[in-house]
Amino acid sequence: MDKNKKKIVIVGAGPGGLAAAMLLANKGFAVTVFEKNSQPGGRTSEIKLGDFRFDVGPTFLMMKFVLDEIFVECGKRSEDYLNFIRLAPMYRLILPDDRYIDSYEDREKMRIELARVFPGNELGLDKFYHYEKKRYEALMPILQGNNQNIADALKSKFLKALPYFAIGHSVFDEMGRYFPSALARLTFTFQSKYLGMSPWECPGAFGLVPYTEHAQGIYHVVGGLSEITRQMAKAAIELGAEIKYQSPVKELLHKGKKITGVLLENGENVLADEVVVNADFGYAANNLMPQEFLKKYSADKLKQTKISCSIFMWYVGLKKQYHLNHNTIVFAKDYKKNVEDIFRGNLTEDGDISFYVRDTSDTDPKLAPIGQSAMYILVPVPNCRANINWQKQKEKIRSFVIEGLKQRLGITDFEENIVVEKILTPDDWHDDYNIYEGAVFNLSHNLDQMLWFRPHNHFEELENCYLVGGGTHPGSGLPTIFESGRIVSNLIFKKYQKKD
After folding, report:
1. How confident is the model at residue 150 (pLDDT cuts 50, 70, 90)?
2. CATH 3.50.50.60 boundaries in the chain
3. Residue 2, exposed/middle/buried by CB under 10 A (0-12, 13-18, 19+)?
4. pTM of the entire structure?
5. Among 5, 18, 121, 289, which is least packed, fewest CB within 10 Å?
6. Is the per-residue pLDDT at 426 higher than 90?
7. pLDDT above 90 (res 432)
8. pLDDT band for position 123 (50/70/90)?
9. CA dihedral (105, 111, 117, 122) positive or negative
10. What is the per-residue pLDDT for 354?
11. Contact by Cβ (8 Å): 383, 308
12. If DSSP codes are grouped into helix, strand and coil, which group holds residue 152?
């Protein structure tokens, strides 16, 4: 290793850490990534159960251009590493009244679907594209900026974008601009789930999320979304980064507020010029960072933050195929009550749940043996602040899912065809994946926890310490997490004024 190179340590080989590793290695820094697991990815890694493979977390990719740009900036092409499949339809929605609507990127197909299911609402589709494109174009440069200083609010681009934040309006309100039917709006607001929020609470600014899906499409990656981080790790190593697996970090080393490196669980001290933290932010603040210097994000202050919901995950290997759509979303019969219960910390007693199913049987033969299927089932549930005994309650949720599959999707023989299965509850996310309070979508994305009000990429409470991942700016979701890695790499590059 060149002794003159500035040394960068990255804690965690998740998508944000790997994006930073690729970009910084390409810029000539000496990059070492320490990952506690034996594979990269964190929540974007893989679970193997016998001959079945499952993504731990994300199951489709939106805003693909962000990932493409990161590879290009490193002199590479994403398509040389990954095989992308554009999904059409993007997903099937089973509505509370049991009608279904297929959601398409193709505008005319989407118009036909709206007219079929919600006659008259198709008239608002062009207006949706027109206005939400303006919102997207106004807000994306702000989300892609580093937003280290509230003075950014005085810049002209922010002032011009201010109306598009729709302050005081939820994303459900904003979709009412185009679609008078409340059920039609669900087609364009369920995406608030990606942020771990309710459509009735998620800020209207996030109308740009359904727009990006409908304007740019969503993708499956052959082999699963975990292939993204696996191939990013490969590219980072090719660019000169070093990734050390099964090397958990115990704490950040420091001299006063200045972070000087990391202490590994094995007792080894590793010094660095800069440290990038890709661990879950709440976990890192509570467990890795020197507590005496944390004021804004002390343990007590973290307890007062708004955090996302959690998820009950059921990974199921089945000895037959059901040939569902790649993505199927089933809304509870009383969807609003279901969402409100989740955020009040309540579990349903009547089994009226919302759930998401990914069935790759017809899309990707690599995830299950021939003629069999790897089913991924997600149920939004309260986070650990609800103090639910998940050891007792997980079988109840499992039974609710089986009944939901039967009643809502017509699958009557699901349980008898199970070969292997694994369940993750909020407690498991907290204990095994080091996720603060099991809130898998991190800090909530309320406007008072966005932009400069979110933990900064160049962390404001410590020196030489940077943050990537869903708990920092720009927020949760794969493309924004990739973007956090790019923002951090640019901040470090600028500090040292390195030349390509």
Report:
1. confident
2. 7-84+222-304+445-496
3. exposed
4. 0.95
5. 5
6. yes
7. yes
8. very high
9. positive
10. 97
11. yes
12. helix
95 alpha-carbon distance from chain centroid: 24
Asked whether the beta carbons of 27 and 500 are under 8 A apart, the reply is yes
- Sequence-distant (6+) residues with CB within 8 A of 225 are 44, 55, 57, 58, 59, 60, 61, 478
- Distance, in Å, from the CA atom of 46 to the CA atom of 44, rounded to the nearest integer, reads 7
Q: Which of 385, 376, 400, 304 is nearest to 343 (CA)?
A: 385
**Number of Cβ atoms within 10 Å of the Cβ of 411:** 18
For the chain, the distance separating the N- and C-terminal CA atoms, rounded to the nearest angstrom, is 19
Which one-letter DSSP state was computed for residue 366?
A: G
438's tokens: 């099991």
> What span, in angstroms and rounded, lies between the C-alpha atoms of 407 and 262?
52
Cis peptide before 89 (omega within 30 of 0): yes
User: Which percentage of the chain shows pLDDT scores above 70?
Assistant: 98
Query: Per the omega criterion (within 30 degrees of 0), is the bond before 474 cis?
Result: yes
pLDDT score for 1: 47
C-beta neighbour count of 257 within 10 angstroms: 14
What is the token pair recorded at 303?
């307890």
Superfamily of domain 7-84+222-304+445-496: FAD/NAD(P)-binding domain (3.50.50.60)
Of 75, 80, 82, the C-alpha closest to 61 is 82
